Amino acid sequence: MLLVCGVAGGVSLQAQGTLPAGPATQVAVRSDARQVAVTSADRLGLFTAQGQRQHLLSPTGRVLTEIVYSGQHVLAMDVTGTLVQVDDLHIQRLGDTLCGPLKPYQAVRLAANGQTLAVSCPDSLLIKHLGQWKTVPLPSVPSLSAANGAVALSPDASEAAVLHGSSVLRYRLSDLVPLPTLTRLPGEDLPPWTTH
After folding, report:
1. What confidence tens digit (pLDDT) does each residue in 31-77 have?
2. Between 20 and 30 A from 8 (CA), which of 61, 62, 128, 141?
3. Cβ-based burial of 180 (10 A; exposed 0-12, middle 13-18, buried ≥19)
4. Quick check: pTM over 0.85?
5. C-alpha torsion sign, points 60, 61, 65, 67
6. Cα dihedral across residues 20, 147, 81, 100: positive or negative
7. 3-state secondary structure at position 2
């Protein structure tokens, strides 16, 4: 059972469906709430809002690590950093091994907003903005956490942010100029919350 609620749009969605090859690992809901995309291993399942499976496919033949909607399109990234766009049964490759060779513990993260894409690689941030790919080298960090690389785009697609070590690096997309880095979260210096 899948339940998604959106306060701003008053969206609620319940869907039931099954995927072979084990439990679901990623889920994304289209902005109009008419379709849900779910991954399990190398499989991508597309479901209606009522829970009927429309399609089940393996867009790259490898384990999928990220899925997001960009408008009506599903974008999926696999363990090698290969990015595909899926429209029903039509698959279009947007990039192969975008981040170069990856170690088994390294992950590639993906964010999309309209035609703007952000791909977080272990040592760089790739931005597709106004139809062109650009690369922003990231500083070297000795030890990276599992959450490293989480990436986001602002609602107006004017800014990208990536979690890199203990910092959140931010960039203005029009010229990729760095914005102030976030290195401390509000409340970080408060004592841990405990119950008595």
Report:
1. 899 999 999 999 999 999 888 999 999 999 999 989 999 888 999 99
2. 128
3. exposed
4. no
5. positive
6. negative
7. strand
For the chain, give percent helix, strand, coil, nearest 5.
0, 50, 50
3-class secondary structure for 21-63? CCCCCEEEECCCCCEEEEEECCEEEEEECCCCEEEEECCCCCC
Amino acid letter, 163: L
DSSP annotation of 101 reads S
Distance of alpha carbon 187 from alpha carbon 195, whole angstroms: 18
- Smallest Cα–Cα separation from 118: which of 98, 142, 139? 98
CA–CA gap between residue 191 and residue 155 (Å, rounded): 33
| Residues 6 or more apart whose Cβ sits within 8 Å of residue 128 | 115, 116, 117, 118, 119, 134
pLDDT in tens, 110-148: 999 988 999 998 889 999 988 889 999 988 766 555 457
CB 133 within 8 A of CB 173: no
Q: The tokens of 36 are what?
A: 């849900």
Instruction: Report the amino acid identity of residue 57.
Output: L
Q: How many residues does the structure list for the chain?
A: 196
